[in-house]
Amino acid sequence: MNSTVAAYASVLLLACARPTPREERPDERFFQAAELARSPSAEVRALLDSPSAAVRSRAALAVGRIADPQAVPKLALLARDDETAAWALGRIDLGRDALVACLPRPACARALGGNIQAIDALIDALPEPEAAFALGVTARNKDAKFPARAWSALSEALPRIPAAAAYALSRMPKGERVHGLEIALRDSEPWTRALAARAWGVQGLPASGLEKAFDDPDWRVRVEAARGLATAPGAADSFKKVLPAQTSEHVRNALFEAAAQIGPSVLDAVPTTPCIAALARDRIRKRLVDTPDCAPRSDWRQRARIGALAAELGLETEAAAAMRDPDGRVRGAAAGAAVPALAPEVRKLLEDPDPYVVAEAAGVLANDAGSREAAKAAARRLDKAREKPAGDPEYDALASLTPLTGSMLPKRPFAVPAEARAMPRARTLRIRTSKGDLVIDLDPDVAPLTSSALAVLATRKFYDGLTFHRVVPDFVVQGGDPRGDGDGGPGWSLPDEHSPLRFLRGTLGIATNGPETGGSQFFLCHSPQPHLDGKYTVAGKLRKGDDVLDALQVGDTIDLATAE
Length: 564
Hints:
The protein has 29 helices and eight strands.
């Protein structure tokens, strides 16, 4: 940290220590209006100088959501002692240097997660745990390049920060001379053991070292051991040893997914049912054998499963048949999974009457120059949707065509329901599922529009009868889609209300398909997910129903949702 910034920081700390005159916090609608405008506000920036810590923090949240570059100097003074200010700097391109200057402060290290230009500074900040977590988050960036010293530094840090170091090693590519994970595998904390199990395989350590992890009492550890097994040398023998004893559906599903990566050597050990096992067998064979018969084809989900796998494997005849299915959800699934060789078939779907299918096809064809004319024709057909709000299926389909057409769409105002804009301040969301009840504490103080919108949807009975369409073991359970295929929504989109709040076990987040695209779909985390922190809206936290969260599987239903 340079001397000038340090001097200003010292002055600020002294000022905060003195009694200050009371200052009332501006009405929340003031901040909401500034955030929805998504443009820098001198009035909001001025509040970063407020004598009230609460007002400064709320102003930092607003300038972070706006990503106001003019706020960087003031945020730099606050970041050492205000996590929200550090988070806001991490949202602004010009904020990196200020964050590096205040390392190894935890808030500053955490805010640098995902910044590939800060990798060396984060390594130097070890063994600060947040620096290790930030390295793991950064590893998700395909452009991230790590110096050889990163692996040795994390290995040395493992005894002091086992969870954080194991997290980084579980996300980074394979390195040389990694050591210490065997101790983390025996840690008293289940999350640490789970991270170590995944890191074990990612770092190419022998599969036999993971076999004891499959006896762990926590199913999440066993799930991550299964994922680690997928890339561990000698995985086939270990897979055959551990599979028969596993009774958890989550663990078996993870093992079946790993089988597809391990390859032909485990084919005989994988059963033909359930469908996830059949999918693994067919991925190994690279042809459709077991999947077509694992469930009745009268169910659109089964036809979507077959079509998506055929498109993924490049099986032209089967994929083309799925792209002509009478159910748009099947056509969309096949389009979304298609390999480049199937571009001619996917291109035909740009004429589809279902806007969700058009959006799936456009996403796959985004870099296909041969599809430009077809995309322009589709855009002309959907041109009236320009006047519709973001979140409307036709508007979103039109927006998905822009990478191919090169045209720009007018920025549309957020069509948040009037009830949500009135901010009724619901505090509790109750969801009765086919597996039991979930009670969630909403957070209208940090995400007022989002939590209120969820409450409005529950009050309208929107969620009643919908399914949980996505379950990724030890990651998330996701529901709230009226189509049931992951593409649907309420017909409007929510503004992102990102914050420094962490995604921990039971955190309620809002699913999106890009910036400002949240709607009715929500997810609940099985375990902490640092890579989601600050990048998705946290709307609440599970208060009751941990066992229900763990039991939910794809197809389980929301019988009743209420808000109060």
